[in-house]
């Protein structure tokens, strides 16, 4: 059986309610770049918004489906419980001050000898920030976040599983992560990349969460190219899972399967990336549609609320 190892997280996708509030939080507060404004290909009346580093490199991308009147979700088993962001060493005090400046409550916690700032976005999605040396720095500066303090991308994620024994087996035997520690409620797994590479699994089985605003829909893992992606599909199938056919998501190809702890996994290709239909300096500025929706552009645009990336008042001081 082919030995496969993912470099780590490609992207994480979540449900929220308000599109402009989401832009304000992730661009305005966290200083990420909105790298793509498109639609949910399965529900074109809903935006699909992507945020990441200057180019939306794999390992930096968080994406959202803002559904205005969607139900509130409940975080629990079968979900990413916490999305972890990594910042350069020496930046945590900057982020403490910044969260306080925006009146965002946070708490400091320690896990595996690292200090995390934990907080939530407007919908209750659970986030945390940790300092680490590894991983390239973001080259994007926005809204009062300088490059030397900017979020580099994902540090990793905390997984909540209804069957953590099976999820741990999958992380090691299928995804190729290495178990590097266990402490209290968490087992830690590490992938080969330098961003999105630390996965902490809550080792206690958790009651199933409920999907909706403020919860993660899926976590996507990296495949380096289309050839490796095809191998991943066979590899996952050979381990008894039932992946979807390969789906064209314009900026990557994807397969999806649900692991035994209830978490929806995707495996996504690194290429072609977000510059395939926009110049790198203009990413996220226009509504981009796949060619099969272009004929309905005016109708699609009229159904979507206007949004803008803006510097928030608290970020100007």
From TrEMBL:
SUPFAM superfamilies, per the entry: Glyoxalase/Bleomycin resistance protein/Dihydroxybiphenyl dioxygenase
Task: Enumerate the PROSITE patterns for this protein.
Answer: VOC
Say if the entry is tagged with keyword Oxidoreductase.
yes
Q: Spell out the PANTHER family in the cross-references.
A: RING-CLEAVING DIOXYGENASE MHQE-RELATED (PTHR36110)
User: One MF term in GO for this entry?
Assistant: dioxygenase activity
Q: Which UniProt keywords apply?
A: Dioxygenase, Oxidoreductase
Q: What is this protein called?
A: Ring-cleaving dioxygenase
Annotated transmembrane regions = none
Indicate the segments forming the VOC domain, all copies. 8-132, 153-270
């Amino acid at each position: 059986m082919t030995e496969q190892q993912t470099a780590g997280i490609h992207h994480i996708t979540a449900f929220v309610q308000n599109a402009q509030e989401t832009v304000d939080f992730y661009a305005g507060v966290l200083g990420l770049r909105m790298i793509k404004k498109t639609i949910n290909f399965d529900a074109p009346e809903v935006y699909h918004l992507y945020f990441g580093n200057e180019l939306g490199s794999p390992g930096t991308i968080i994406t959202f489906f803002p559904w205005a009147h969607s139900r509130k979700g409940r975080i629990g088993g079968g979900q990413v419980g916490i999305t972890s962001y990594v910042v350069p060493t020496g930046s945590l005090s900057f982020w403490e001050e910044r969260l306080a400046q925006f009146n965002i409550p946070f708490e400091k916690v320690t896990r595996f000898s690292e200090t995390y700032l934990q907080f939530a976005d407007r919908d209750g999605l659970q986030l945390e920030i940790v300092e680490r040396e590894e991983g390239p720095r973001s080259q994007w500066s926005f809204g009062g976040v300088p490059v030397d303090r900017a979020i580099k991308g994902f540090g990793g994620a905390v997984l909540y599983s209804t069957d953590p024994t099976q999820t741990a087996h999958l992380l090691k035997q299928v995804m190729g992560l290495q178990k590097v520690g266990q402490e209290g409620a968490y087992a830690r797994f590490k992938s080969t990349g330098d961003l999105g590479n630390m996965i902490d699994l809550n080792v206690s089985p958790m009651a199933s969460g409920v999907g909706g605003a403020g919860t993660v829909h899926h976590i996507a893992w990296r495949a380096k190219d289309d050839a490796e992606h095809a191998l991943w599909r066979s590899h996952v199938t050979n381990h008894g899972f039932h992946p979807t056919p390969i789906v064209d998501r314009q900026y990557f190809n994807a397969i999806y399967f649900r692991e035994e702890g209830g978490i929806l996994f995707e495996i996504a290709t690194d290429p072609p990336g977000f510059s395939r239909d926009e110049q790198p300096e203009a990413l996220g500025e226009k509504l981009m549609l796949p060619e099969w929706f272009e004929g309905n552009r005016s109708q699609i645009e009229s159904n979507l609320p206007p949004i803008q990336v803006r510097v928030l008042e608290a970020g100007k001081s």
